[in-house]
Amino acid sequence: MLETLPNKLRDYKLHADVRTLLLLRKSMSKGLVKTLGDMYNVLKGIVVKDPEMMGPFTRAFYDYFLNIDIQNGERLNDAILRSETFRQWRDDIKERQKDFDLDDDQLVNRFLDEVHLTTYDIKKIISGKDIFENDDPNLEDDMGDESGEVRHKHLDKMADYSDLSLEELMERLKKIAEQQNSKHSGGSHWIGTGGISPFGHGGAAKDGIRIGGSGGGKMARKVINDRKYYPVDLDAIINDNNVDAALASLKGITEESAHEQLDVESTIKKGLKRGGLFIPEIKNILNEKLQVILLIDNGGYSMDPFIPMVQELFKKMKTRFAHDLETYYFHNTIYDRVFSDSRRFKPVFIDKILSKDKNYRIFIIGDAAMAPYELNSVSLRTYKKIRKKFKKTVWLNPEPTKYWHHTFTINLLRQMIDMYPLTPRGIEEAVRDMNAIN
Amino acid sequence: MANTSFWTGSEKYLCDLDLAQAFHMARTLGMPLLIEGEPGTGKTELPIQFSKDLDLELFVYPVGSKSNVEQFVARFDHVKYLRDSQIEILNAQREEKGLSQKLSTGGRDTENLSDYVVLGPAAKAFSSPNSILLIDEIDKAPREFPNDLLYALSHRKFILPESGEVIEVSEEDMPAIIITSNREQELPTAFKGRCIYHYIHFPDADVMREIIAKHYPKIETKIVDVALDVFYHLRNIGLERAPTTREILNWLKYIKQYSEKEAIEKIENLEGIGALIKTQSDLEKIQKAILRNPDDYSRRSTPN
User: Taking CB atoms and an 8 Å limit, are A54 and B199 in contact across chains?
Assistant: First the structure.
């Protein structure tokens, strides 16, 4: 059961595999999953490894367990309101409750509360009845003329759920998964149907007790309506939103180097073996360092939008690591010189750059689009020299990859220097491939 | 038996329900809990308060840029070992010469290698059941550190250097492991995969009020209202380093010694703002904002 869950999660670009299922099963056998709200929390702990994954996770969860498909940019409320699941649940309540006068908003809230009701909430209710006193005043009305005794019965009922065996629980979850596909499953739909499944908490819900601790519901609502929970598009050209993601991929370029130091341990060890004759042993100490040269094409309108972003990106990089980072500019293509200022007044000859340590990493950032005659033999020779001297040279191109093969100069340059799109993913790949070169 | 009860905070510490659940889940599964979030949201406080509240032993490993697994688990004290072995030779020579006075090795025996193994917090925590292990600010660690930890965390087993002694813990006795990170660097995916992950969101005004109440139960609500107003305003104007829980608590600590009227006046004049703002450029930014928008600030001078 739940075999299809990892696939669903992966559809939403989340990491999930067999281990996810094993962990989930383990959590169930430990009694962590008794309600759908528990399921949400436990899965969240297992699957979500980054706050940005919260949005996609919540969507995947609603899709898989509730058959509520939240469209991109849609609010959770709207998605719930138009879903079949919600309609059935509402009809179910209406049937049970004669004096039904909740508006859509209140209904959605109640729906969310039920979906996200966790064992913890239930325990809280059982352990402290004061919640009822503190809960919102409407409660008394909703309760109608039911006596306190009945209340206790409901609580017992809820408590019973925690005694479910793992097998029973699995069985029920399986049903949910099946019901996904057979939409109209009569009265046995899991949610809001008292007693039939632990996920409905029916006894409690149908009599209109507002369950305390609607934290989960609120959270889900917030997550879905808040832009910051959505992952930056890793394939979009870098912009304000994903510059941090790009930065994260850039971090891989810090490099370890070694210097020598007296190795006290092995000096002692070997000295002891020699019977007390100590001869210093030397060991290498690893150091992180970063040597980067940026060559940025800042000529022409095509590059304009990207330059501040690229500079920002590498500036952040620099403040983060405070290492060796040099930036030079060129116009369209590099001939015998680049410029150390963005207005291209102060020339730096390429030979000077070529005289630098060969361990520098070179990032050339430009669209590589120009008139074919611009890319003359001088320029081509320069690229060849750079490539030859600095093994770790890459070209980052803001132009979308699908246009690359239409441009003659891009094709030509690509054959000489590895080219990657100027996207977080592109940068990550570039860095990874760079690191592979030794 | 490890403590797997559900813990929701103590008198001094307001544990957000989501966090409490994630923490419970991690302990029940015997997995480490990885907490990320802005600085000052109480990541490190969780294990500290948990240990205080339930009277459990806490072992802390503060991670730095030079951290390695040796420090974390156990290392072999070569220098002491050398000293003691030299002392043995010396003592033998003294004995030969008929000197009775001997130098002491402090009860350590060079034959017994485990005498020279210095246990790190991890080894200590793993050998005392039902304890808590805090690995603080793992994002400061060198890149290979988290991956090195992976082995220990997934096998629940350490092999001590030189002595070869094995420290093993059953899943039931696994200490509660809390790892915190400020997200200064991305942690390896494989590492995150072995942890239960929780991201602490910055508390909203209501929660903040509760937090403040836990720390300063006697403070006037009106003062808190005005202070929070300023606080969240400052957080929203895009400072380089936005003030956090820790800072507002410090600020209030200063403010609360005054009477209500004085205190509110002080808050409005942004007195003691140094407690909230930590960089020069932020300070300048705020001053500029006040000049540009004096209304925004003077409006508060007539609290109603």
Answer: yes
